[in-house]
Every structure is written in C-alpha cells, then in structure tokens.
Amino acid sequence: MKKKKTYFRFCAISICFLFLICGAGCKKQKPQEEVLFSESPVEKSNVQEKIDPLKLVYELKNFGPSGSNGVSHMTLWIEGKQDCGGREAYVGLMQMESGGQNPSPVFSKITIFSDNGEMAVSRFEDEDKLVFDDMPSEYNQINIPLTLNSVFEYAGKNFQDSDVWNATTPILLKKVDSGMSITDYSIIREKEQTTGILPCQNFKIVAKGTNMDGTMHTCVAKEMNDIKLPFVVSFAFGDSDQQGPRWQLTDFSKETSGIVFVPQCMESVVCTYLKEPDESERNACAIQGGEIQQQRTEQGCVMEYKCLTQEGMIRESVAHMQRPGCSVDQAVEDKLLSCRKNNQPNFDVTNYDQNGCATDVSCRP
C-alpha cells in the first residue's frame, strides 16, 4: 500500500461526498477550454411502477465526518420503478447521518438504471426539499451501495454481465477515468462468502493510478429481494489491520422510508479527471503557509486547484461538513487553528445546533 497519505486523500474525497459539496463561490474557470462534466439527458419522470421496497443500511467507518467513535451511517431506500429517458430505473432516497451528538440527516434522491446498475444522485439537501421535483443532479463521488459496479461503469463495462463473476484469472480495467483519478485496476475473484448477513462474492481490487495506489476488498451480492443489482455487502480500502475507509451492510428489509418525496429521474454527471498540481507547485504554496485544495463546480466536478491559507482551509472544510447557509463559528475556527499548531490537522464535528451548523469539533493527528 502506498503511504498513509493515500488514505487521507480518499478521506478528503469522502468528506466532500458526505456533506453537500456544491462548489458555490468558486467562479474562476480554467484558462483552456475543457469539458469537466457532462449530464446524460434524461426525461421527466413517467408513471411510477409499484414494487416491493428495499431498505439497505450501511455502517461507515473512517469515512469523513463522524462521531467520536468514527462511525457514520448511510440508508438507501428503493421504492419504485419507472421509465427514465427510455431506460428502466429504480427510484428512491438516500440518507446520510454523522455520529455527532446531534446528527442532522441529509437526503439525496437516487436513480439506479437496471440495465447496468448506473446510479445517479441529487445534491444532498434538507428533507423539505424532497417534496419538489427540481433537485439538481450531482457527481456521485463515492458510490457506497454499488462501489465495484461504478468501477466497471467508469471503464465502459457492465459489471452485471462481466466474466469477472466466474473468472479464474484477474480481469484488467485500464486507464479508467473516475473523475478523481486515472487508474488501472486488476479485479481478482476470490471465494464466495456464505455466512454473514447475505451470501456474496468476494473480490480483491488492486489499483494503481494518478493519485491512489493500493488494495481494496469487497463482497458483492448479485441481487437482493428480487432486485437484480450488484449491491455491496462489505468494502474496505486497505487491509484489515489498516485504518482506511470501509463500509458494511448491517441491515436490509422490505421497508419504505416513510418520508414524503417526489420521485425524480436523476441525471448521471460524468466528470473528467483534472491533473493535480506537481510537487513544485505544492511546495510554493506551502512556503506561503498554504495548501493546495480542490475547487469544484456546482455538479461536484473538480474545476481547479487553489492555494489556500490555514484559515481558508478550515473555513472550507467546516463549510462542507455543515448545512448550506451556515457561517463558520469563530470558536470552532479558533479551536481548529490551535489544533493545527499542535499537529492535529484532522477533525470530526461532534456537535451541531438545531439548524445543522457545526458548534464543536474534536481534533486528531
């Protein structure tokens, strides 16, 4: 496994995914013309077909903002099936909860296309936004329930029909552009798992790319409750003795969310990888007391890299971990500056007020 910084980069990505990366306030464009994202045209929702609902609950560890125990939760509900742009698709909701003292859930509408398992999502918002039909689509940065499927999808392959399910030699996927890196993958089929919450097929994933090298392990079910989609049962970045991000299916059932919402056909946002600054650029920024940080479009694609001061990094990090419209609490900013001076640059939000604004944090190395 490449150095621990691989995990830090992955965790930074996961922080963005968990709490509402919108890219607001970032207006500067690249000097050269380049398409950073595209949206697959999808028509307005058609009449919804009733199906047996499916609820999946995942426990996430070492993954972005969480409570003192380092755990957060994601819940997915599939509640209907409909035609989206001429393709059969499942529609529903996703909920993310951190583990702070006052966890404030945020919600995203989801569309999963049945032909290839492609999952499109909306921006995460408050529950009240779910009752309208205009939630914007956003780049699906970390696809928790369909992680391995998304790797094949980025490679232009269909995981559901792939030879990897019966392969005796590694399946290679080369120069895969996920929007976060250009990566070569070797997918190795391992033994089937028959114990635990659900039977699943184990795979080992070895990756080497522009900003992430290493090994991942996952176990995938071919279907669940008659829904033929390759849902993740477990996923771990790194080996069992390492502290990389990981998620585990802890519960599944035929339950609806009980949340009132208007189903939408969400559009898949495809990002193009933007080359990261080299070591000399990072050093020049560090000399100024700053650090290179990603700036994103409203759809969640990286549009540029910017040198930010310590204060600027703190404000951006906190803003990503609380609800839109919240200002960064001065006491929180001061505490985090002090933590950085004491070599504790990482932090978790441990308390939110009733508006979902961060009011306290805990620091760690």
Account of the 3D structure:
This protein has 365 residues and is an alpha+beta fold. It has one domain. It has helices spanning 5-18, 147-154, 279-287, 310-320, 330-341; strands at 37-39, 54-61, 71-84, 87-97, 106-113, 119-122, 137-138, 171-177, 182-193, 200-209, 214-220, 232-237, 246-253, 269-271, 290-296, 302-309, 346-352, 358-364. The strands form 4 sheets. The protein has a 12-stranded antiparallel sheet, with helices on one face. Strands 1-14 form a two-stranded antiparallel ribbon. Strands 15-16 form a two-stranded antiparallel sheet. Strand 3 (71-84) and strand 4 (87-97) form a beta hairpin. Keywords: Signal.
In terms of topology, how is this protein built?
Elements: H1 5-18, E1 37-39, E2 54-61, E3 71-84, E4 87-97, E5 106-113, E6 119-122, E7 137-138, H2 147-154, E8 171-177, E9 182-193, E10 200-209, E11 214-220, E12 232-237, E13 246-253, E14 269-271, H3 279-287, E15 290-296, E16 302-309, H4 310-320, H5 330-341, E17 346-352, E18 358-364
Keywords: Signal
Signal peptide: 1-24
Protein name: Lipoprotein
